């Protein structure tokens, strides 16, 4: 009897041990347990409670960026009204890099940046702005400069010493690297410096970053590169409408601290008419997108300035509720978009993709109000109160254009 009991207990213990090790093994094999984004201790850095605003060198200057361009841009942003409108980060994109030293620390290209990055960062900060830089999770950047792979902690230290506040981290030359691991590693390296650095994830939406990046970075590109055109894809580059159609369905993933990034603005770069540029800027605001100007802000036209500095449209982008707006009606070339705002009102966009002007009517129930509601309508491009109206609002929207409103019950 006792022997029976003993052997039964021994058998039970053996079974438990097997079950335990099997469970432990399962856990090891479960890819979810290895995912940094599932670590409950991981948080974002508290930055970007509203979508980041600033300027980036790439769309206009590409690899020709240099110290003079950046200084001119800083002067223009600080004194020309952009800073007051909320533009804050001055970001140098690809091609600033020199070589690594004998210990592996990265240096700047001194021919293009004769004063060095530290001095340039000081210049940016002295103007009350923040300083951003670019690197890549692979061996080389997209422009063929040294990437950060294998040098993540060293590069983070260098950036912190220079005074970097924002890192755009690209995805060229990454081979079979796992994106979540690569971005988490750089996020950890930046965090370890103790300097708050906004992390802009740029892997073009290849690995669905909206599903894992909210505890790793502050924004993630959702598409290939934007091109300075209303519509149409050319290899990896997409027109404004093509980007909109890819970024719109991702609205549930955006929120304070972590935003969908449909790429930098092309306003003022020459490929869009002023009407198209207003629609582009309006859509980015409706999508709570980062507003990163991509033009030569030191030499822009008055029309471009009026677009980038429309504070009413910017306020929609920067609304503290942090909800990404979405398309609520699609009639082909005409669309209605709605974005809920913190005060209970809505920003509304009437979009006309067609080649001729079109009359577009939006009905209150489409934006979540009953038809009997009386609401104050304001036109954000005309800067005009339209009046208090019931049930619906109609406007003639120009070809390739948008009418942007707030509707406030
Ligand atoms: C990629 C990025 C762009 C830009 C270039 C620089 O294409 O998506 O935004 O940073 O690299 O080479």
From TrEMBL:
One of its GO terms (molecular function) is hydrolase activity. Keywords: Disulfide bond, Glycosidase, Hydrolase, Signal. It catalyses: Hydrolysis of terminal, non-reducing alpha-D-galactose residues in alpha-D-galactosides, including galactose oligosaccharides, galactomannans and galactolipids. PROSITE patterns: ALPHA_GALACTOSIDASE. SUPFAM superfamilies: (Trans)glycosidases, Glycosyl hydrolase domain. The keyword Disulfide bond applies. Pfam families: Melibiase_2, Melibiase_C. Residues 1-24 form the signal peptide. Coiled coil: none annotated. Its EC number is 3.2.1.22. It comes from the Bacteria. It is an enzyme of class 3 (hydrolase). The keyword Thylakoid does not apply. InterPro entries: Aldolase_TIM (IPR013785), GH (IPR017853), Glyco_hydro_27 (IPR002241), Glyco_hydro_27/36_CS (IPR000111), Glyco_hydro_b (IPR013780), Melibiase_C (IPR041233). Residues 331-406 form the Alpha galactosidase C-terminal domain. Belongs to the glycosyl hydrolase 27 family. This is Alpha-galactosidase. It comes from Sphingomonas molluscorum. The lineage of its organism: Bacteria, Pseudomonadati, Pseudomonadota, Alphaproteobacteria, Sphingomonadales.
């Amino acid at each position: 009897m006792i022997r029976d009991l003993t052997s039964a207990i021994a058998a039970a213990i053996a079974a438990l041990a097997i079950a335990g090790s099997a469970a432990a093994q399962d856990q090891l094999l479960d890819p979810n347990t290895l995912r940094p984004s599932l670590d409950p201790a991981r948080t974002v850095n508290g930055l970007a409670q509203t979508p980041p605003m600033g300027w980036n060198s790439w769309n206009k200057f590409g690899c020709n960026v240099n110290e003079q361009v950046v200084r001119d841009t800083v002067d223009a942003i600080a004194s020309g009204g952009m800073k007051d409108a909320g533009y804050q980060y001055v970001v140098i994109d690809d091609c600033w890099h020199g070589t690594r030293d004998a210990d592996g620390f990265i240096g700047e290209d001194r021919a293009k940046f004769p004063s060095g990055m530290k001095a340039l960062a000081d210049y940016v900060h002295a103007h009350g702005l923040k300083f951003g830089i670019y690197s890549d999770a692979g061996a080389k950047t997209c422009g063929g400069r040294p990437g950060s792979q294998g040098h993540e902690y060293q590069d983070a230290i260098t950036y912190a010493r220079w005074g970097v506040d924002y890192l755009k981290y690209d995805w060229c030359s990454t081979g079979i690297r796992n994106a979540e691991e690569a971005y988490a590693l750089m996020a950890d390296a930046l965090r370890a410096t103790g300097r708050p650095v906004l992390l802009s994830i740029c892997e073009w939406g290849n690995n669905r970053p909206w599903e894992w990046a909210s505890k790793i970075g502050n924004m993630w590109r959702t598409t290939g590169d934007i091109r300075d055109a209303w519509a149409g894809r050319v290899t990896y580059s997409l027109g404004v409408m093509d980007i909109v159609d890819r970024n719109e369905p991702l609205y549930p993933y955006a929120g304070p601290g972590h935003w969908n990034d449909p790429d930098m603005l092309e306003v003022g770069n020459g490929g869009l008419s002023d009407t198209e540029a207003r629609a582009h800027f309006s859509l980015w605001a409706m999508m709570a997108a980062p507003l990163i100007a991509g033009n030569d802000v030191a030499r822009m036209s008055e029309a471009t300035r009026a677009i980038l500095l429309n504070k009413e449209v910017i306020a929609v982008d920067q609304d503290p509720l942090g909800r990404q707006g979405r398309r609520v009606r699609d009639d082909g070339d005409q669309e209605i978009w709605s974005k809920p705002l913190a005060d209970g009102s809505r920003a509304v966009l009437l979009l006309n993709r067609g080649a001729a002007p079109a009359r577009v009517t939006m009905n209150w129930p489409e934006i979540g109000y009953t038809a009997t509601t009386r609401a104050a309508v304001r036109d954000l491009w005309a800067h005009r109160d339209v009046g208090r109206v019931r049930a619906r609002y109609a406007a003639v929207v120009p070809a390739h254009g948008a009418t942007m409103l707030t509707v406030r019950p």
